[in-house]
Specification:
With 202 residues, the chain is α+β, with helices and mostly antiparallel strands. The chain is built from 5 helices and 7 strands. The chain has a 4-stranded antiparallel β-sheet, with no helix packed on it. Strands 5-6-7 form a 3-stranded antiparallel β-sheet. Strand 1 and strand 2 form a beta hairpin.
């Protein structure tokens, strides 16, 4: 169980109540949980999945790969093409599943992962190569993560964008958003959606 909050006295009271009801003990400050490393400093808390990323590189045989600067090509034009060579379905789904979990601390790959995850049901060779490109990008950025800084900046801010019906097959748009709370990134997502046009009544 992870307990977090800003009131240390209340946390201690909660822990005391839990210890009375259940056979459990405190393990101190959180350092590692489900593949996520928690690093503390005077500036705040840093979350990363370095070991998890290295495991992906090792599993795909890309520890010594050539580096790439971006997780996906600009104007990638990925789609399901008739007659194209199929990828190994199980292998593809396993890799993309791992990348989806990694994107919890890596907002920089969320768009690319969102693209390759669209082809889980019928993955083709170029889709698998696009997923491997994300892994190659990870080699150069293996220590990256997300920082929650201690600061006095208040407020909640959100940003969003869309590429407006870029998918040539179903005319879906790619939509992305992220939000900040007190200056720290807390949510982000990239997904496909279909837009509906409604008449404006006056």
């Amino acid at each position: 169980m992870i307990i977090t909050g800003g009131d240390t006295e209340e946390i201690e009271r909660l822990k005391g109540s839990l210890f009375q009801e259940f056979e459990m003990k405190g393990l101190g400050n959180l350092k590692y949980f489900l593949g996520i490393e928690v690093l503390r400093s005077e500036w705040g808390i840093f979350l990363r999945q370095k070991k998890y990323t290295l495991d992906i590189l090792a599993e795909t045989g890309l520890l010594d790969c050539k580096l790439v600067d971006t997780p996906i090509l600009v104007n990638h034009d990925l789609q399901i093409s008739e007659g194209a060579e199929l990828a190994n379905q199980g292998k593809y789904q396993r890799l993309v599943g791992k990348l989806i979990y990694l994107s919890q601390t890596r907002p920089d790959i969320s768009y690319a992962v969102g693209i390759v995850s669209q082809f889980m049901h019928r993955s083709q060779k170029d889709h698998y190569e696009a997923a491997l490109r994300i892994v190659k990008y990870l080699k150069e950025t293996v220590g990256h993560g997300i920082m929650f800084k201690k600061n006095k900046q208040g407020g909640v801010y959100g940003y969003t964008d869309a590429d407006w019906a870029s998918n040539p097959v179903d005319r879906r748009s790619k939509v992305g958003y992220f939000t900040f709370v007190d200056g720290n990134l807390v949510t982000w997502r990239s997904k496909s959606r279909r837009w509906s046009l409604y008449p404006v009544l006056q």
